[in-house]
Amino acid sequence: MGDGNCPAGNRVRSAGDRLRPAPGRVRSAGVVRATVVRAEDAPGPTLVVRLDQLPVGALALGGELARLRHALSGTAYAGLDKIALYGPATRAGHTLDYRFVQALPDGGFDFRAGCGHSLLAAVVADGHPAAVTVRAVTTGDTVLCEPYGDAYTLSFLKAPTAPGTLPTGRPVDVLGGVPVSLVRYGNPYVFVDARHLPETEDEDDLRDRLLALRAEAARILGHPPRSALPKIAAFAEGPEGLSVRALTVGGWHPRLALTGAAALAAAGALDGTVVPAPTGPVRTPGGTVTVSAAADRVRVHHKRAKVLGGLELPWRIHATA
């Protein structure tokens, strides 16, 4: 089956990797119950939907999701652009399977990106009181979410030195004369030392320069121009440690994406990258982010999320001839 809003390269490729509604708990056709969750430090809330809430035959591809977002136009969440779809795990060793969908400014969707804050939103919406192991279907990551009081530590269970963390095989690449490190950990990221960027107090100029570097990295990594990937962040090292400015879809990130924090720590753990290893909290415009790297994982600490409310939304199944 096809969907004009979901390029073939952006779909989950095998039937075993698709998130499907579980039998026996399907809602009445045409209506889906969703939960809106806001993770602290995220640019906005996430619409969280359990797969067993979808009508029979739903595929959760571009056409159906576009109509779902249109239904939000009459609610307080009209601008919501992050969707988390999840259900019981289909593989041993995991608790939940999770799929992230990023709505794009042009009305399309990116099905290949990951979002750590939306993953946490799905865990909080599901209400698990203990540790949860989540398989991120779109990125292939396994993430352990452990509650500590009112916060979580999220551990990406992959060694920073694992094959593929440096997608070009090099710790440093040069884009437009600027040395950068391209890292794939949680999401593909471009990290650039702010010393190699033009000095400017105009945030629009800085954003445009970062977007130009991101576009060149997208070409190298094989991402289409309209994709949300790769992400990009500029950092500076000073007496108080690392400080970071990052872009997200539509503008500046208020802090740093959870996957960006994980990728930063992974890059810092690798020899030869432009990123120094974080030795304390990483400073961002909205506050600090705490990360740590071990031989077999990267941890992002002190993450919180809360449920904002529930919605019942119409769901029109996409049909093909």
Task: Give a verbal description of the structure.
The chain has about 325 residues and is of the alpha+beta class. It has four helices and 18 strands. It folds into two domains: about 10-150 and about 305-315, Diaminopimelate Epimerase, Chain A, domain 1; about 175-305, Roll (Diaminopimelate Epimerase, Chain A, domain 1). A hairpin with a 7-residue loop joins strand 3 and strand 4 (about 95-105). It starts with about 30 loop residues before the first strand and ends in a 7-residue tail after the last strand. Keywords: Isomerase. Belongs to the PrpF family. GO terms for molecular function: isomerase activity.
In short:
By secondary structure, this protein is an alpha+beta fold.
List keywords for this structure.
single chain, 321 residues, alpha+beta, Diaminopimelate Epimerase, Chain A, domain 1, twelve-stranded mixed beta sheet, six-stranded mixed beta sheet, disordered N terminus
